[in-house]
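Table S2 (text version). Query chain:
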Amino acid sequence: MATSATAARPLAGTAVPLPLAARQRTARVALLPLAPPVPAQRLALWRAAQLPLPARGRSVRCLATLSPEMRATLDKVVGSSKVVLFMKGTKDFPQCGFSHTVVQILRSLNVPFDTLDVLSNEALRQGLKEYSSWPTFPQLYIDGEFFGGCDITVEAYKSGELQETLEKTMCS
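Corresponding C-alpha cell output:
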C-alpha cells in the first residue's frame, strides 16, 4: 500500500496541473469589429484579362528605346503567322512551366502556331518587353496583336474567350 500512496503524490518541485473546475477563468477579450469588406475590384491591380476583348486586343507599344530595326523585325515576325508565341524554349521542349502551359492550351485547341525561343537571343527578349509593354514570357500574339501572357491566356481559355478569338482569327 505504501507504494501506491507515493505513486499518486507528485515529486517535490514539479508542477501539477489543476483540474479544469479549479482553474480561474480569465475574462474574455472583446473582439474589435471587423472592417467592412473591400470590393475585389479595388483590391485587384489592373489586369488586362478583366478588360473586354476590343480594348485588350490593341497593343500599346513603348517605342522610345526600341530600335527601328528591332521594331521592324518584330512587326515582321508577329505578322508572319496568325498565332505566334514568344516563349522560353520551344514548343517541343519548353523551358518554363508558364510556356509549357500556353503550349498545351494551344495544342488542345488544335491551333497551328509558331514559337520563338526568347532564351536564345537576349536582344529579342529585351526588345519584346518594350514592344509589347509586357515584362514577362510567354507572350501570345493572335492576328498580329498582343493577346497576353500565361495568366491571361489561361483565364481566356477557361472562359471560352480564347477559343472564340482563335476561331475568328482562323476563319479570316
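Notes on Table S2: Confidence is low (pLDDT under 50) at residues 38-64. Residues 75 and 144 are 8 Å apart (CA to CA).
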